[in-house]
Automatic annotation (TrEMBL):
It comes from the Eukaryota. Residues 279-303 have a biased composition (Low complexity). Residues 316-401 form the X8 domain. This is Glucan endo-1,3-beta-D-glucosidase. The lineage of its organism: Eukaryota, Viridiplantae, Streptophyta, Embryophyta, Tracheophyta. Residues 276-314 are annotated as: Disordered. Belongs to the glycosyl hydrolase 17 family. Keywords: Disulfide bond, Glycosidase, Hydrolase, Signal. It comes from Datura stramonium.
Length: 405
């Protein structure tokens, strides 16, 4: 993973019309910083295809081609790819994920862009936002599905695959759309995704707890290398929106409240990407933004998901809180044991932790093993606020609960 930079929508006409301008742009914005800065992608414009700007849309591909040619001339065309960022609205269908299709409204333009990606080995950059999906369906079960929290899952009627989170469903819908058009070799990169920590009183979903849960669980999901159901074992490169709040942006309050940090550099909340309260972990790298073309999708610097140090401190195990109903514990049990890499065999019949054969006992083991495997971050022991950390070792008889330093 590396740095993604962007040419603004306003630069597209000049980039398209004048190869010399494209060369100058590459000299000023790429060559001046490379290789000290690990630039891997140049995004030409932001959500141009769905902007409705009929003057700008036809100029997008020529602009990308001129930037590609300028990089080729600098012998960087193999190392640095050229792309552009799309809103999820380039899809006409995304549910279920296996039915994902690109909108025929953008047909010729998108096919030409995808052919460019195929020929140059560059990624399709997409902005999936489970937050907006929840706003359109504000049910508790939808929130859990969007926040990577325990939930019943959603079965894709086309494949029979059960999805446990909205992010995977949205990414796989794009994957299906690429397959449907014969571009399965084009890589997907998530250019933006995030969750606002506050919003206007009439907005559903924004809160610090939700933002921390979404970004923290997303990071854990990506680091697990589980991938998505249609792309198993592949961790899609993902950039978290956003490093800083866009405090001057118009629109609803949530639009100004996606940042991990505030404009005064103070921390909004920590999702494990910082070494100290005020200092982002190197190499947390901002992406140069392009101006927004729609009022709903944010466009500020984003934070690439990079490994953070494991937490240290006293021995800790993740256990259910007292008084949690069996129905909630069963959901936690099903969720934990459905995750790739989680070994629930000790609580199966004949296993060392099968007895006592109760939902509470089995859920406790499964919740703890997920916490230990996922990275031992506080948000890994949330389970929709039904779990808490303890320094008391819950192991008993021949049943060992992994944990400790």
């Amino acid at each position: 993973m590396g740095i993604v930079i962007g040419a603004s929508n306003g630069d597209i006409p000049a980039l398209a019309a004048d190869p010399n301008f494209a060369g100058q742009w590459v000299n000023s914005n790429v060559l001046a910083y490379y290789p000290a800065s690990k630039i891997i992608v140049v995004n030409v414009g932001n959500e141009v295809v769905t902007s409705g700007d009929q003057n700008l849309i036809p100029q997008l591909l020529p602009a990308m081609q001129n930037v590609q040619n300028a990089l080729n001339a600098a012998s960087l065309g193999v190392r640095i790819k050229v792309s552009t960022v799309h809103a999820m609205s380039i899809l006409s269908q995304s549910d279920p994920p296996s039915s994902g299709l690109f909108s025929p409204v953008f047909g010729d333009t998108l096919k030409a862009l995808l052919q460019f990606h195929k020929e140059n080995g560059s990624p399709l950059m997409i902005n999936p936002y489970p937050f907006f999906a929840y706003q359109s369906d504000p049910r508790p079960e939808t929130l859990a599905f969007c926040l990577f929290q325990p939930n019943a899952g959603r079965v894709d009627s086309g494949t029979g695959i059960k999805y446990m989170n909205m992010f995977d469903a949205q990414v796989d819908a794009v994957h299906s759309a690429l397959n449907a058009w014969g571009f399965k070799e084009v890589q997907i990169v998530v250019a933006e995704t995030g969750w606002p920590y506050k919003g206007d009183p009439n907005e559903v979903g924004p809160s610090v707890d939700n933002a921390k849960a979404y970004n923290g669980n997303l990071i854990n999901h990506l680091r697990s290398m589980v991938g998505t159901p249609l792309m198993p074992g592949i961790s899609v490169d993902t950039y978290i929106f956003a490093l800083y709040d866009e405090d001057l942006k118009p629109g609803p309050g949530s639009e100004r409240s996606f940042g991990l940090f505030k404009p005064d550099l103070s921390t909004t909340y920590d999702v494990g990407l910082s070494k100290h309260a005020q200092t982002p972990t190197a190499p947390v790298t901002p992406v140069t933004p392009a101006p927004a073309t729609t009022p709903t999708t944010p466009t500020t610097p984003v934070t690439p998901v990079t490994p953070a140090p494991k937490p240290t401190g006293s021995a800790a195990w993740c256990m259910p809180k007292p008084g949690i109903p069996d129905s909630d514990l069963q959901a936690n049990l099903d969720y934990a044991c459905s995750m790739a890499g989680i070994d629930c065999s000790p609580i199966q019949a004949g296993g060392p932790c099968f007895e006592p054969n109760t939902v509470a006992s089995h859920a406790a083991y499964a919740m703890n093993i997920l916490y230990q495997t996922a990275g031992r971050n506080p948000w890994n022991c949330d389970f929709s606020q039904t779990a808490a950390l303890t320094s008391t070792n819950p192991s008993y008889d021949g049943c060992t609960y992994p944990g400790g330093n």
